[in-house]
Amino acid sequence: MAALLKADYITLWRNRRANMLALLMPLIIVFSWKGLIPRTGGAFVLANGITLGIIAIGLMGYANAVARDRDKGVFQRLRVSPLPLWTIMVSRLLVQLSLISLLTIVVFVSGYQLDHIVMPVSGYVTAFFVSLIGGALYLSLGQAVVGGIKNPETVNSTSRLIYLVFIMTGMLGQFDYFGEEFKKAVVWSPYGTVKEILATGLEPAKWSAHTTQALLVTIGYTIVFATLGIKWFKWSSK
Amino acid sequence: MDIKQQHILQVNNLDVFYGNFQAVKDVSFHVMQGEIFGLLGPNGAGKTSTLSAIEGLIKQQSGTVTVAGYDTLQKPLYARAAMGVQLQSTSFQPELNVSEILQLYSSIYGLGLSKEKLQVLLKEINLADAENKKFGQLSGGQQQRVSLAITTIHDPRLVLLDEPTSGLDPQSRRQLWSRIENIREKGNGVVLTTHSMEEAEAVCDRISIIDHGRIIATGTPQSLIDKHRADPEVIAVSRRGKITLEDVFIALTGTAIRA
Asked: CA angle at residue A233 from A231 to A235, to 5 degrees?
């Protein structure tokens, strides 16, 4: 497991340019939504930035890397070695969760540097751990995509499409552009629940029954997507 | 020594299905210590499916596979630790270079690979200058050498090679056979598939010919030639006046080109 983790971290490092792109969108949000802070609060901006970042990592980074390696036969080579199968995926997921941790910290720091957003220490700590829960949701969604689709190009286009849909509905839906009903639906979407637990996590004093429900729904989504992703997953694309 | 203890690989009544299609039908064979065993057959005959079941990549519907005494279904990790596998098309993480790949797999097999040992290994496979190259940047022959080095890095009791010489130039092929001979000399067993009858005849101690999922002949190359030399089908397909393993193979499996 340690050897696999080392190899997966090397892979992450060698793909650092692509990973920087996953950090770009959250930074754009933090920078461009500065004007919203007086109306929505700093937690709202940081939560949206982190949510978009973890969607990019889980959907596009993880799913595409798994689809590519599966197509090349990397998994088959590992499967004929004396490794328990679960270690192959757990190693990759741990590396992605590390990237999500890095993303969260980068958003916190850039929020402070660019927008002068300051949250209580307990808020940063809570939001940090909550971002891992949100990350797990999108990694499980990525697993479901790569489980349901074998072709790496189709995985790529599907994950991009889902990413776009999540950005459009998640970000714009919460601003009343599509009406009240749509706004309510977005609240309970994977985007909405993760954004809710992150925003409230940054301000733990505001934690409410609604936030707990959002947390439970997030965990529920994760279980459903992970179950489908594991059930559907094939180690070879052939 | 009990004869069973000399069997590095024992395959009994193996059946493999893909949905409703039965790719492997009641296949049984064994491989002894220090033996090179060839599994020959036309495209789609069931060679790779048989190897995949031994390797644990697909699960057989019935039958048993025992590697170095370990049942592959009951003790899969022990069985896989006892075997080295070279797949037909294999790849490694494209971001890793040759030395990182070798270190990864040596660690997976619980071996320490110091810098000195790594250099020795790289020299052995004539890749001392390519240690920092990514796997995808290597030539076909170099990739094959890395792949075989990983296959044998833990000195496995059983080595499984799926069309190992496919796409190699004569020099690389000669070197590969030399390495396979070394494996045999250590007393380890080798199972290989190949489409080259000349190679099988020259290298394999015993072969099985498989077609439509069934083993239709087993023996030493010479014994199969001797057994079938008088068959009218063999004589009919013979082109050189001298009966070869290829003649026997074509006579047994037919002249129709497979998909």
From this structure: 135
- The ranges assigned to domains in chain B are 3-82+158-253, 94-155
**Contact (CB, 8 A) for A100 and A57:** yes
Helix, strand, coil in percent for chain B, rounding step 5: 40, 25, 35
Which candidate from B56, B92, B94 shows the least CB-CB separation from A77? Answer: B92
B57 touches chain A (CB under 8 A): yes
Give residue limits of the domains in chain A: 2-232
Please give the CATH topology (third level) of the domain spanning B3-82+158-253: Rossmann fold (3.40.50)
Here the ipTM equals 0.86
Chain B nearest CA to A41, separation (Å): 42
Spatial CA neighbour of B223 closest among B198, B243, B253, B193: B243
pLDDT, tens digit only, all 259 positions of chain B: 444 457 899 999 999 999 899 999 999 999 999 999 999 998 888 999 999 999 999 999 999 999 999 999 999 999 999 999 998 876 888 889 999 999 999 999 988 788 888 898 898 888 888 888 998 888 888 888 888 889 988 989 999 998 888 777 888 788 888 888 888 888 899 999 988 888 888 889 999 999 999 999 999 999 988 888 888 888 888 876 788 888 888 888 877 776 6
Helices A190-202 and A42-55: angle between axes, nearest 10 degrees: 140
The pTM for the full model equals 0.85
